[in-house]
Request: fold
Amino acid sequence: MGCNSCSTGKDGQPRGCRNNGTCGSDGCNKLTVFDWLSNMSLPSGQQQFDGVEVRFKNSRKEFFRNTEKLTLSIGDVVATQAKSGHDIGIVTLTGELVRVQMKKKKVTTQEEELPKIYRKATQKDIDKWQKCRNQEEEIKKRAREMAILLSLQMKISDVEFQGDGSKATFYYTAEERVDFRQLIKDMAKAFGIRIEMRQIGYRQEAQRLGGIGSCGRELCCSTWLTDFRSVSTAAARYQQLSLNPQKLAGQCGKLKCCLNYELDVYLEALKDFPSQDAKISTQKGIAFCQKTDIFKETLWFSYKDDPSNWHALTKEQVKEILAKNRRKEKIASLEEYAADNHKDEQMIFENVVGQDSLTRFDRPKRRKKRNKKRKPTNKKSTVRNA
Reply:
């Protein structure tokens, strides 16, 4: 991701805006929403909804009420109401789509429940906000050192300053309950600000920090995924994936969220398949299902006495055999059905890189010219004695 303010600096060197997805140009933001109603006018007599969606550091978003009737648009920096003092954020959505987002996230639309937007941020507010943001990495490093000295089993993953610089929120992950009362006292004394500790899960930590997944793209949780559905190993079993924790786990250490993306399609396809626990009765013995291929609609069965020898049957064949078994009819063997599915596949080797040769850019080797002139040979004449 890159925007006009963080892409490159002098001499083409990467500059970095240090905003972690909260750039004002909206070029490298996380979880952005496209306002497809921005060019449409409201019906006559209807007033625009005064709710505003404001984004803070990373993917944290909150809803506010525009009681001052300010003319706001996406990308404006505003000063918002906080529990104490004020915070600085960037407007991400206005108008009727805010009502839809609030309904989706089950946030009440009553006026007394929502905080307010004070004003558009002045240059003084923005300078103070940027100064606090530049101190976050150093304070996070010092906070980690304090936690290590106190032998606390926790990991401080991120720090977020309030816009006015009076408060800092420390996000951490931990396996068990942590008593950080002494840590708060030490940090408040060292930094001179109010401290708030907030525990998050490992998925939320990956969402805040971001990164590149094994697919080569940015993490879904940090770009567009807004809710975290539970992922179980059953999703991998239904899709017949290898139960390898190193391949199925994401950067958060939990099962990848993308395991749920195609799960519904697999479950819909498996409804028309015979159960994998189905048993086939033959005259040679009972056969069990060993493997299922949803795309080829093929099932592999093996006899109880010969589990290493598999026989491929189509879905329709298995249904036909199970129907005969329910009528207490046994087939002769699996081989007679598997023989109908056997096809001699001819191996065709193709040039995977096209018609060009792999050595087309190599310089041709020149053959050395051989000297055809024969070297003179000294023949000694023999004298015969008469």
In short: The CA atoms of residues 80 and 220 lie 29 Å apart. The chain is about 25% helix and 20% strand.
